[in-house]
Amino acid sequence: MSRIHDLTDSAGRGHSDGCHRKAACRPHRLKCDRIHGLRSPSDLLTPHQSMEFLCVPPRLCGQPRTDNSQLVTRKLMKALRPLRHRDFRLLIGGQTISWVGNNFYEIAIMWLVLRSTGSTAAMAGVAAVSVIPQLIFAPLAGVVADRVNRRFLALSMDLCRGVVILALPTLAVLHHLAIWQVYITAFVMFTLFTFFIPTRQAILPNIVPDDELPAANALFQMVLSGSLFVGFALGGLVVAWVGVVPALYLDSISFAGSVLSLLFMRSSGRSAMVAERTGAVKEAIAGLRFVASVPSLLAIFAFLAVTGFFIGPLLILSAPFSEMILHAGARGYGFLEAGLMLGTLIGALLAGIFGTFHRVGALLIVLVGIAGVLLMGMSYMTVLLAAIAFYLAIGVLSGTLNVPLTTLMQRLTPDAMRGRVMSTMMIVNTAGTPLSLAVGGIVAQRIGVPAMYRVEGVLLLATAAVFAFTPLVRVVALPPPSDARGDRNPVAPLRDGSTPRVTEEPAIA
Questions:
Q1: Smallest Cα–Cα separation from 90: which of 231, 266, 253?
Q2: CB under 8 Å to 88, separation ≥6 — which residues?
Q3: I want to staple 434 with a disulfide (CB 3.0 to 4.6 A). Which of 96, 128, 150, 289 is the partner?
Q4: Is the dihedral of CA 234, 236, 238, 241 positive or negative?
Q5: pTM > 0.85: yes or no
Q6: Lowest-confidence segment of 39-43, 246-250, 274-278 by average pLDDT
Q7: Residue 467: exposure state from Cβ atoms within 10 A (0-12, 13-18, ≥19)
């Protein structure tokens, strides 16, 4: 029989300070409080059992057991802590309404082009002109976001988007709507969107403490995913039942929610560490140099650039897949996209409850590889419910990853540089998209949509396999600073210690 240290008699009823049991005692995993009060080893062990006890810190002795429900409740309360902040509630509430309307727009535009032309290449054209503004204006958008009142900039961009989108349904009512007008409207809408996104991402660390940033990102991801889920589902039904024009009018109205919420926020979101103004071009170059100087950011951005190029054609496959393979029309298209967003919501919820993942780089590689397998399976689906299940699974992967990845990039970047870094991420993630959309649209037209899903799956699997042998696999999560608020210095957290933590911000010429 194995040794049991210092079990006291009934008068003692407890361990000595040096006594504790092995954490994984076999076969019954007896709790510490079960050991208290035992008179002899025979009270604890049967002749058939052999257990080994090691030392447990004295602070564990006598502690009440915490059941799983209490643990989950505490984690859930921690995940909801950012909602204590008024500005965060306003921001997340306004964006929820706006994003529901945005998906009415996406469903309506793609369905309008598909029904008008019957061509995946024409749909690729709409997606391409939506991406081009990000490549042209993202560097300037990052500089502007770091210079000005971020709240006012975000408010202005959403107000303009709500006005611009009115052009399409108005032209349709007057019977003057043409495809080239759809292209121009998409270009203007996403030019405004290019200035909005890095601003919104940069303002979040200004309205919540740093130690609540992972929970804030998780909540944002959950609520936005939920609004996208509702938006795609309702958008598909609205387009199927009443047509494209009402859907576009509803999208325009939805921007009022975002504008009003930003109007009533108190924080300006302006960086407290305003960088020296040396001209927009030089400041944009300084942002690129900063990314190049932090190995973790460089590794992540390289991976995003490659995967962004390969997944470009996925932006246009859902609508023709629903129409030609599933025979579910606009309703099926909306449900597919809603399934993807519901999965993202579930993934963000899991990430928010169970905390930040440590090995972010390895997680990124693994999840992209799994997504590749799911896309290959997707190509064989002919039933709507089965296809939705695949989209749901892909969404879970995306939502699980977005929270730790976004938090890591926000923490790696000083406040005065955050807008430029977020705009750089937008550039690298979409730089190859116009080309991949052009090629993907033509290829999908020739080989068919199911075969295109298989091609996408193989490309993602190959990408994950190659990057498994790069420094990306060593990128890990960054803990919060000792102070709850305030800027942090960038680090490059590689597990092998090859890049040490810096004590001052790197000089950027």
A1: 266
A2: 82, 204, 207, 208, 216
A3: 128
A4: negative
A5: no
A6: 39-43
A7: buried
